[in-house]
Structure formats: C-alpha cells, structure tokens
Amino acid sequence: MARVSHKKDPDRFLMKRVSSYYYHRRVPANVAAADERSPFVRISLKTDDLALARSKRDLIEEADNLLWASMIMDEAHDPARARYSATMRRVEALGLTYRTSHALATQSSLEEIVSRLEMTATQKLPQELAQGAIGGIPTPAVTVSKAFDIYCDEIVPDELVNKSAVQKAQWKKVKLRAVNNFINIVSDKVMTDITRDDAMKLYRHWLERIAPKDGRPTHSASSGNRDIGNMRVLYEAYFNYVGEEGRQNPFARLNFSAKKKRSRPPFPKEWLINTIMKPGNLATLNEEARGIVLALIETGARPSELANLTASSIRLSHKIPHISIEPRDDPDDPREIKTSSSERLVPLVGVALAVFQRHKDGFPRYRNRENDLSATLNKYFKENSLFPTADHKIYSFRHSFEDRMKEANLDDELRRILMGHAIDRPRYGMGGSLEWRRDELLKIVLQFNQSIV
C-alpha cells in the first residue's frame, strides 16, 4: 500500500515559497513508475494562509492516497473508479466542482469553460489533473449493482447514521429489491448504457402485475411506483455524484395511478374490553409481547415505538407518569423515529400505566427486533381468533385509540400530537401540559382486571 501520511504533523507536505504555500510530497517508490509526477508531487496552493493551505492539503492528500492505492490494487478491485475518484478530489482541491465534459458542454457557461482552460494552461497542471479540470477523464464503467454499493457507501451514508441496524436493513432491503428486479428483467447494465427502453421494461413488468389484461392484480400501484422511484433516485444520485448533474433520467415520469389506500379498521371498543382484555385471552403470550399489546390500547403508539423504549424514556417518577417517544441518540445503538412529528410525550393511564409499572426498563426482548414482535403478535392473534375480521391487523389498536379520542370529543390538535401526526399550521407552545393531556386521556380510559398485566 502507499505510505500512510503522518497525521500527527499538522503541516505535513506543506512547503512555503515566498508568499505562497505548496503541497510537496514524494511519490511512494512502489508506484513511482506509474505516476508521471514522480519523484515529487508539487502543487501551488495559491494562498499564504496556513489554515486554508492545510485544508487544501487535506483534499489533495486524500486524492493522492486514493490514486496511489488504485495503482497497486488487484484487478478484483476497481482501480479505474479509484483513479476517477482521486481525480475528482484533486479537482475539488483546486476550488472547482468536478464536472464531466458532457456536463460542462451542456450545463456550464462559456465563462466557466474558458476559466478552466486558462487554469490548466497558466498553472502548468499535471496532465491527469488538467484533464480532470476540463472533464476529460472518462467516467468508469459502473454497473447498476456497483452503483448501488456506491450509493449506500459513499452518497447517502449520512442518511443512515441515526438508523438502527434493523432500520438500515429495512431501508436497504426495499431499495435493493428495485435494483435486483431491474437486473433480473434487463441485466446488470453499465449505468451509462441504461436507456428509456430498459426503464420501460421495468415499467411493463409492474404494469402486468398492477393492471393485467386477464386475471386479478397481484400487486398494488404503490409497489410499482416504489420500485421505479428507487431506480430513478439511484440514477440521478449516482450521476450527480460523478459530476453529471442534469443528465436525462430514463426513469423520469414513469408511475402508476394509485388509489387511496384503504385504512385498516379499528378494534371496536367492546372487542377491546370483552376479547383482548378478557382475563386469560393473552395468558399464553410471552410477558413482554403481552405488555406491548396492552400498552397499545391506551397509548396509540406504533408497536415499534413501544418495543424500542428504553428505561430513560419511561418516566414513572415524574408528577405525571409518561413515556417519551423520541430518537435514540446512542452512537452505539441509534434509532430514528418515523417523522419529526412522531416525537412526543404520552401520559400513562389505565392498563398502559400498569404495564410500565411492571416493565420499568421497557421490553428488551424486542428492542431492535420489531420484525420479530410483529411476527409473534400476528401469529398469536390469528391462532387465538383475536382479530374481529381478516382485515384487522395489530395496527388496528392505533386506529381504535384515535377513534376513541374522536368519539370523546378530545381536542383535534391533542389527538394529532398523541398520535404523532403533523399539525397543519405553525406550531406554538408545547401542545398543552402533561397534566391536561392526562386528564383528557382519562375520559377514554378502559377499565381492566389487574390480573391481565
């Protein structure tokens, strides 16, 4: 490998001549024959400010590390893309945004093009860097599957930082399905070779399942829209990343008309009291899953929100006992919540209060394992006839909670806050005190037998 830079020296590879700093670095011996700049790389940083020089040095240093690594990589890796990435970073170190020749020709002003040409002529840039400044480095042949890896590892990793392992896996699963479907239908094509006809093949694949000429649909419009939409996002994000903003997207304007999704029916109040909360009906369900089911009744929370509560978000010692549904900021165990409006404080009343008095640390069996929780509850409810109809799901608890608040004439904004729904106006204040929220929820609280907890 190329020699690792001396990170302890803040002024490594910096040399000052007269009134300007230079990046000055020896080319490692094991790549000297392949690097035209050997034996030394010397680039004017065009500044006498040490802090700015260090910043520019960092960019060029990283680019050279990538470049030299690409020169000694096995063919099993991707030296062409590594060289391309290195050139992009070296161009950025010049204070330019990297653009391909196609992007420069179609999206840049004449002044920008002339300025880049003048820079390559007056600064006597190395040949590869000069070519990079004017977009002359060919875009490497990257397949759809490889582009997806780049998308996950280099383009959107910041979006995944606060997701739990389960959330990351689910995020990737949905997007990878679109990639795999495209590969199975078309092929693992090079990104630059994808055509509108290829996109139409994916579109027709879904059309046959959403609106077949003969027979019943097997998939919803949202499934097809999600797949095509994910390919559209991947295509745009990848080419923006490699300097071709505005490239015509073959997946553009391909979508299916989606009817409004049918809402899940709520559990009737009588069903909650006489079936779900009937002593014995949840007795053989494991204790933590049973606790989550019962807590759903009086909190209206999403099952995953309850499963991922920690001891610090279960606040029984406060004047008004409550749970805090919030993102988990632990760097070793992060977790996002669905939306910013989902962050909320829910007072504990009725059976939910009894549950958390028993489970003060939450439900560790299902923390970061919400899929296991879903499978366990669905299986148990079906086997024990706890769903009123085939249309009812575990999420029906949430709909039931909302209906009970509505029927009791609870304030509309309070209902939205407790459900974690967005409020369609500028938000002021805290949405009412916890004491007021608790008193309002007591209007809908259901009586229960302590033995069921």
Automatic annotation (TrEMBL):
<dbReference type="GO" id="GO:0006310">
    <property type="term" value="P:DNA recombination"/>
</dbReference>
<dbReference type="GO" id="GO:0003677">
    <property type="term" value="F:DNA binding"/>
</dbReference>
<dbReference type="InterPro" id="IPR002104">
    <property type="entry name" value="Integrase_catalytic"/>
</dbReference>
<feature type="domain" description="Tyr recombinase">
    <location>
        <begin position="262"/>
        <end position="446"/>
    </location>
</feature>
<dbReference type="InterPro" id="IPR011010">
    <property type="entry name" value="DNA_brk_join_enz"/>
</dbReference>
<dbReference type="InterPro" id="IPR013762">
    <property type="entry name" value="Integrase-like_cat_sf"/>
</dbReference>
<keyword id="KW-0233">DNA recombination</keyword>
<dbReference type="GO" id="GO:0015074">
    <property type="term" value="P:DNA integration"/>
</dbReference>
<protein>
    <submittedName>
        <fullName>Site-specific recombinase XerD</fullName>
    </submittedName>
</protein>
